[in-house]
Design goal:
five-stranded parallel sheet, 474 residues, alpha+beta
């Protein structure tokens, strides 16, 4: 079976890697991967600037999701995995121009201790009283999908939406709490509300259960985030090294996809090629356009997936230049503060091996669903904004020894209300077109591990078809 993979980000590369594994195990498959850009990896991109490792896109992945760790083990680079310095994991929230530490008793915006909640400067007294009353929140059956903001406001009030929900979610999804589906983004919250009513009660019960398991089995807590010594690019390079170079078509955009008897016809600048199956590992909008003549309903659902754009700016300093900065991983900025920056990470604190002891890396984030206009600014204008806001917030006045700007246009899928139903419909349609699969950050999870998982599942599905001889007419 000849399989075309369209898209060379981590999802498409994972599909290619696992197809290569299936081929080596005897599955009758071969593949060609098409990537319109001149490099592979998509948003996963690491620079080496001087003696520092600088991430252009994601700097890590959640340790608890296994698929990235498993891939690293298979690639032989598990020994280069590094965990975040969680002993120094202090995150601040900018409130009225002041950086307030986010207490460790807040479990993703849910308070788990009463007295510290009453004493924190992060919330007003009206919000603190609402948090206390949240303990009496009655169980609520799962109903119509709602936004994260709607759920959080029902439980804790609008101030928690502004100061916690929005900043936390903007860093992961590039969106805002008022437009993201709670069922897609925080499914555990929905389950906790259904079973306990109060999110505080549910979180406390979960902590007690986890503490008992940890004590009984002697588990050591794993770091929250994992990365690689050489940067996230190390994973990309390791995957590419396992693939057949003749199967990788860089700078080759697929302009058209058409169904034909028993397979598909792809048109690229290099000509027309025929394949038995296709794996889409592109943004949903690209798949939507190319599948319009295949299935109108599938194309429509794919076309409704929204995306946001982002910009990351990394500045290199001497470590002594940051004496005015508070210790910790960095800070989040609510929209109500009126800045263009959404967050800042002190990379040299968060991860080892990113900078030598005398250097510091400061990484700033802009854009998101509510500030797409920032991409219209020049690099010089963006750098000026970042340096001015860093000065106002942290007191950094020194000139950086380097600044690097990365732009990611429409790269972050937005899990808006109804997203899960949309993905379910897409899955049902794909069952009727078995020689077509989809992978990517819009499909079944936004992070690197989920992208790897969707690529792997697509590859395994195609290998099963090949073994069973099921090349099916679309």
């Amino acid at each position: 079976m000849r399989i075309a993979i369209i898209g060379g980000g981590i999802s498409g590369l994972s599909a290619a890697y696992y197809l290569e594994q299936e081929r080596a195990a005897g599955a009758p498959v071969e593949y060609s991967l098409f990537e319109s850009a001149d490099r592979l990896g998509g948003v996963m991109f690491s620079d080496k600037i001087g003696d520092c490792v600088v991430e252009g896109g994601p700097d890590s992945f959640l340790t608890e999701k296994p698929w990235a760790n498993q891939l690293c083990a298979e690639l032989g680079i598990a020994g280069d995995l590094i965990g975040s310095n969680d002993s120094q994991r202090i995150t601040y929230i900018l409130v009225k121009g002041r950086l307030i530490p986010m207490p460790d008793w807040l479990m993703f915006m849910v308070p788990t201790k009463l007295i510290p909640t009453a004493l924190t400067r992060l919330f007003s007294w009206s919000t603190k009283f609402k948090m206390l009353g949240e303990l009496l929140h009655p169980p609520r059956p799962v109903g119509k999908d709602e936004t994260v903001a709607q759920m959080v406001e029902r439980h804790f009030g609008s101030e928690v939406v502004d100061r916690l929900a929005d900043p936390l979610l903007s860093g992961v999804y590039g969106g805002d709490a008022a437009s993201l589906s709670v069922r897609a983004v925080l499914p555990k919250f929905v389950e906790m509300e259904e079973n306990y009513g109060s999110l505080c009660k549910a979180m406390l019960a979960g902590r007690r259960k986890m503490a008992a398991i940890t004590k009984a089995k002697g588990y050591k807590p794993k770091p929250l985030f994992s990365s690689l010594k050489g940067g996230m690019q190390q994973m990309i390079d390791a995957v590419v090294a396992r693939l057949n170079p003749q199967s990788l078509r860089l700078s080759t955009e697929v302009s058209k996809l058409a169904p034909m008897a028993g397979g598909w016809e792809l048109i690229t600048p290099r000509g027309t090629e025929q394949f038995d199956a296709v794996i889409f590992a592109t943004p949903a909008r690209i798949a939507s356009t190319m599948l319009a003549n295949v299935d109108a309903e599938l194309s429509e659902d794919l076309g409704k997936v929204e995306y946001s754009s982002s910009i990351t700016v990394t500045l290199g300093y001497q470590r002594d230049d940051l004496k005015s900065c508070l210790p910790g991983f960095g800070f989040l900025i609510p929209r109500s503060e009126g800045t263009r920056m959404l967050a800042t990470t002190f990379v040299h604190t968060k991860f080892p091996f990113r900078a030598p002891d005398n250097k510091a890396l400061v990484r700033c984030f802009l854009g998101g669903a509510n500030d797409q206009g920032v991409l219209k600014l020049t690099d010089e204008e963006i750098i000026a904004v970042v340096r001015q806001e860093l000065k106002q917030i942290t007191g950094i006045t020194a000139d950086p020894w380097f600044v690097k700007v990365y732009r990611w246009d429409r790269s972050m899928a937005q899990y808006t209300p109804g997203h899960l139903e949309r993905i379910e419909r897409i899955g049902e349609i794909l069952k009727e077109i078995p020689n077509l699969s989809i992978a990517g950050n819009f499909y079944k999870g936004i992070g690197v591990p989920d992208c790897i998982r969707t690529g792997k599942e697509a590859a395994q599905h195609m290998a099963t078809l090949a073994r069973e001889g099921q090349a099916v007419k679309p």
